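Morning F.,

Quick status update on the modeling queue. The single chain you submitted on Monday has been processed. Sequence for confirmation:
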Amino acid sequence: MKRSLFIGALLMALTTVWAQGPNGSGTYYKYANGKKGKELKSALSTILNSGTHNIGYDGLITAYEKTDKRADGKLRDWYSNATNYSFTDRNGNNAEGAGWNREHTVPQSWFSKASPMKSDIVHVLPTDCYVNNRRSSYPFGEVGSVEWSSKNSYSKLGSCKTSGYSGKVFEPNDEIKGDIARIYFYMITRYEDRCGNWSGGVFTKTYPGLVSWTLNMMMRWSKQDPVDAREIARNNAVQETQWNRNPFVDYPGLEEYTWGSKMDQAFSYDNFEGGAIPVDDYVYSPTFSQPDGTYEKSVEVAITTTTDGATIYYTTDGSDATTSSTRYNSPITLTTTTTLKAIAVKDGKTSYQATAIYTIVGEGELPENPESAGGEVFYESFDDCASTGGNDNIWSGQNADGTFESDNDGWTYVGGYSGNQCARFGSGSKSGEVTSPEITLTTSTSTLTFNAAPFGSDGTSLAVSVVGTGVTISPSSFTMKKEKWTTFTATLTGTGTIRLKFTPVKRFFLDEVRVVESNIESSATVVTAPTEKTLTYTGSAQQLVNTGVASGGTMQYSLDGTTYSTSIPTGTNAESYTVYYKVVGDASHSDTTPATVSVTIEKAPLTISGGTYTMKQGEELPEFVATYEGFVNNETEEVLTTKPMLTTTATSASEPGEYAVTVSGAEAQNYNITYEAGTLTITEATGIRTNVNDSDKVNDSRYTIDGRKLLGKPTQKGIYIHNGIKVVIK
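Structure tokens below.
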């Protein structure tokens, strides 16, 4: 309390001296004043991490009553507009509307559930359990082919149509896309020294912090869905609970100063170009009284908006609604299959389009299960377990003895306890047998995955069986490893409502239990195979193939045929590569068998020349130095595995003339070497003529060096005078 009073007094004192930031932020952002671009981002990171309060994962539940309470006192659901949750309606998972939980917009599996990200209320939002489970850990994106959608098509799951990515994505509703974008801007700013180590494929180790396709999309979302009253109010409530703020809410358009068109402009915390928007300056999208789906004979749909005084316009032909469309006055009765779209308009401001598709069938033709088959049907994280053991790498001793908590009601067990965001079952005298809540399987094949580990030195054997009829499991026996998690996978075959029983030898830890249905019928995936690139060594890593295209799945690549990812493999050295590729089908398509593409990075051409040299007859041969043309990426002769040899047939006694300097013998891994001979020019020396083993050419008067005239040819090696020229006979 004293600390809070002191800080409050200090802020009051400061705000009487300095100008003020928007939304009651005072001088909170003053440290970033005058900064630009990357430097601005780092300054904001310092601010966001200074003096924060970690409210803890359990603390989020209470904090939501400040940050995410609707005007009617209900909980705001970020992923569904068809729910009316009280704050106690938690953890129902069997259908949309059954319960809510805490959703990490950056999935916590991407950062290994580490603190403080796990409980950072800026990005951990209250959402419907069922829709949250459908999102799973897929990145945000824009859906092209819809695989599944929530009621009113508020949220969607399917293949990505955003340029730069073709995998499966989760698309939030238009009216919160800007909110999500600004949350991600906050995350890569506050955690700029950590996000590069997160998985998920959307973060980068260096500035800007997001891969280009995600950053471009988020920048666009932020413009299309500007800051609104709800966002400002939530940001103020965040400061009350967590003691920091989101600057991208306080300063609409701030992302342009950190990554966009204004990176060369200095940030001003008290005179920002743009500033906060009025809190009443937003028109909310309409909602439909009936969820989209299949109906028998007809359906009556009412359209409403939470913006008082707004006028609603709608269309029933699939075209976007405008102010020229039909004005809504009363519920609409649809008797044929219809795509319904609507907007709300007030004071010249227009909401985003709301869309729903209603399929009308004849009497008796209604499908037994109108929801899309396939996808995640059960997930248990045990994240509410708040003791020690398991995820903190403690596997024995006086640990894992807290009160058992679960996301889903209906677990039955012998000796259930909390570990560290996981569960521990059993006791020193009893086997930790545990049975899951009911799980309904509607497709012929489903996949079970879970993490398990023995407690201490207890046995490592674990059996999993099906309680119920119509479904079998394979395999059903597993061997755990001591003092570490092991992820196990099993296939569930058949349909029906079942429970899963886990039977260990004694005590064991359990975490991340997930059941995912396959589609009843998987269509063949249409694949345009990646093609080899024509490559020559550059000294840098190069993508080996042109991107493949998959209709109905995600293309993945590998260099070893074992570890696959969506990143195109790269190679540096000049050699042959085998690129493996496959398609992981979406819920409607089957996986493909891995195939290969052979690619060669050719050696770069390198010419080694002997050079040009001149000497006088009788002088020592010059030192020959090779010259090179063709080295890439600032490489030098140091990359040669064998240096070249330069030789000539000439000697110091050779006759004047031109002689070749031959180059040979060089070797290099990444270069294709050709040679150009050099030239050695020997000129006649002034006053000196040197003959080597060629005394027959000395035919005129000859004298010894001391002046004696010779009567015939020299018979010994030595120095002689011939026609006034010194002659050396070797």
